[in-house]
Design goal:
Layout (H helix, E strand, L loop, with lengths): L2 H8 L10 H10 L9 E5 L4 H15 L3 E4 L11 E3 L2 E2 L2 H20 L7 H16 L3 E5 L17 E4 L7 H4 L3 H8 L9 E4 L3 H14 L3 E4 L4 E3 L9 E3 L3 H5 L33 H10 L7 E4 L2 E3 L5 H18 L3 E5 L7 H9 L4 E7 L9 H11 L4 E4 L2 H10 L5 E5 L2 H11 L8
Parallel strand pairs: 1-5, 1-6, 2-5, 6-7, 7-8, 12-16, 13-14, 13-16, 14-15
Antiparallel strand pairs: 2-3, 3-4, 9-10, 11-12
Helix pairs in contact: 3-10, 4-5, 7-8, 11-12, 12-13
Length: 436
């Protein structure tokens, strides 16, 4: 781990006294308010944010624009959060941004401000990175919620996007879909168009009321915006139904597109140029999606083996939909490698994951994070809904090895936590040769 990463990992995730958005604005003003010179697309939602950011990046890049993207969380290294045209920013760019924000933090603390939390520090680094690289567009993913999220200090985005909303982070965002939607809709800005998932009545009503209040042009996207399309075995997915059947043919879309990314249809982005947003031609969209890639999202890493970052009830439901279709098409049995964090609704996740599937083996792995759920409890929850072997391993490495040994010729899915996906991806890296 580099000195930069070691420093960042020591920054507290939370603070006893949370910095207000006014404090965050003060930090940005000390930087010269770099955000005010950027064309920002602001993305919030429970599921699908990262994939939407990925496909937007790919579409804009395909159109000829330079695109900066800020996403979270990372799977293996922090630099994954800072992308330029879909690639990790250069190491020297990353380090310059770090040292600039470190100096900024020290200066602001001397002035009496609270030091930035982990995510705040990374957000300031995002601003510093994009100030260096000068992209045409910056795609900004919220960290948690929307209304009080650090990224919501941005005042004049060119577009806001709200993906699907489900029950997650209830201790911070509320205990109903309506309450959570209200927090997500906090990113809407007066007169700025909003693309949003309209398939859920509870969230749609809240978002549309807020959009009407702020006079935001509304671009709703319902479930009629996508359809299943036949692909090869490498990438099971869904695709927006905007006349792409003939345009895309039967080739596989790397990374896939799910119901949560269905607003990547052309009409969502053919908005008048005075809003600072470009047109996408159909060809730009198709090529952008064909080139798009999002690690840890129905990612095929070995024959029949898929990694999916689904880590809440809504995400698991979407994964289950894909698993059901794949099993129906192939007739193959399913094995699962599972891990979860303690503060998620893992019992509901397990119920949703296993419903009406022929699952022959489950492997539960204890993850390195202190947030890891009790593995015996997870085993008991699987035992309530399945009649198959469920085995626990004390490390992801041991669990992964056992998982592969028990795959046979069936389908194998790794899911439940992004921590789990990150650890597995680290295992897949080629081992560095030992010095002689």
């Amino acid at each position: 781990m580099s000195a930069v990463e070691e420093y960042l990992e020591r920054i507290p995730m939370w603070a006893a006294k949370k910095n207000s958005l006014e404090d965050v604005r003060a930090y940005l003003e000390e930087m010269g308010s770099p955000d005010r010179g950027m064309k920002i697309i602001h993305v919030a939602g429970t599921n699908g944010k990262g994939s939407v950011c990925s496909y937007l990046t790919s579409m804009l890049t395909e159109t000829g624009y330079k695109v900066g993207t800020f996403i979270s969380p990372h799977l293996e290294e922090i630099r994954e959060r800072f992308l330029m045209n879909g690639d990790l920013v250069r190491e020297d760019t990353y380090e310059r941004a770090f040292y600039r924000v470190k100096e900024l933090s020290e200066k602001m603390v001397e002035k009496g401000y609270q030091p930035p939390t982990y995510f705040e520090f990374l957000f300031y680094m995002c601003m510093a990175v994009n100030e260096q690289c000068k992209p045409d567009f910056v795609i900004l993913e919220t960290g948690l919620g929307g209304r009080l999220d650090v990224t919501n200090v941005v005042e004049h985005p060119v577009l806001t996007v709200i993906t699907s909303i489900s029950m997650d982070h209830m201790q911070y965002l509320g205990n109903t879909i309506e309450e959570i939607a209200g927090e997500k809709a906090g990113i809407l800005k007066p007169g700025v168009p909003v693309v949003y998932d309209a398939s859920c009545e509870e969230s749609r009503t809240v978002i549309e009321a807020r959009a009407m209040e702020l006079k935001c042009p509304k671009i709703p996207v319902g479930r009629d915006a996508y359809t299943f399309m036949k692909r090869d075995a490498k990438r099971p997915h869904r695709s927006p139904d905007v006349g792409w059947r003939s345009a895309c043919g039967d080739s596989a879309v790397p990374g896939g597109i799910s119901a949560d990314e269905r607003f990547c249809r052309s009409e969502g982005y053919e908005y008048p140029s005075e809003n600072g947003l470009c047109w996408f031609s159909l060809e730009d969209i198709v090529q952008g999606i064909l080139q798009g890639y999002w690690p840890g999202r129905m990612e095929r890493v070995l024959p029949g083996v898929y990694l999916d970052g689904a880590h809440n009830a809504g995400g698991i439901e979407a994964l289950h939909e894909t698993m059901t279709r794949m099993q129906k098409e192939t007739g193959k049995s399913i094995s699962i490698l599972f891990g979860a964090v303690a503060d998620k609704e893992h019992k509901k996740m397990i119920q949703n994951l296993c419903q009406d599937l022929n699952i022959t083996h489950v492997t539960i792995a204890h993850m390195e994070t202190s947030r890891c759920a009790d593995t015996e409890q997870l085993k008991g929850e699987f035992a309530e809904v399945l009649n198959c072997p469920v085995e626990i391993f004390q490390t992801v490495e041991e669990g992964w090895k056992h998982f592969l040994e028990n795959q046979g010729d069936g389908l194998a899915f790794c899911a439940g936590s992004l921590y789990l996906i990150g650890e597995v991806k680290s295992l897949l890296k080629p081992k560095e040769a030992e010095d002689d």
